[in-house]
Write a structure and sequence with these properties.
- Helix 3 packs across helix 4.
- 47% of the residues lie in helices and 12% in strands.
- The protein is built from four helices and two strands; from the N terminus they run ααββαα.
- By secondary structure, the protein is an alpha+beta fold.
- The chain is globular.
């Protein structure tokens, strides 16, 4: 992710905005759907291939692994010192659904 941020800055002269890293679709009731928008985003590529043939225990592990990946992705963008401050502010303006 750090390499992607730096290469974007080198190519465009600026770091990417949050909506250039992840696709943000606004939903009713002040919610949003965040999805993949490029080379490195919310997709956990290749990590769900076992799911169709997996037993319930392994499916639960795959699900938990995906949750941890996405939480880690957003946590990194929100807190890592290598992420530009403006991008951190954008990410931190969002939060989990209250319910």
């Amino acid at each position: 992710m750090v390499r992607l941020l730096e290469s974007t800055r080198e190519k465009t002269g600026r770091f990417p905005r949050f909506d250039e890293i992840t696709r943000i679709v606004r939903l009713p009731m002040e919610k949003a759907d965040f999805n993949n928008n490029g080379a490195f985003s919310t997709d956990y590529i290749g990590m769900s291939w076992d799911y169709p043939e997996a037993d319930y225990r392994h499916r639960a592990e795959i699900r938990e692994d995906h949750i941890n990946y996405i939480k880690g992705f957003f946590y990194f963008l929100a807190h890592d010192p290598r992420v530009p401050t403006d991008l951190q502010r954008e990410v931190n303006a969002w939060g989990l659904a209250k319910e």
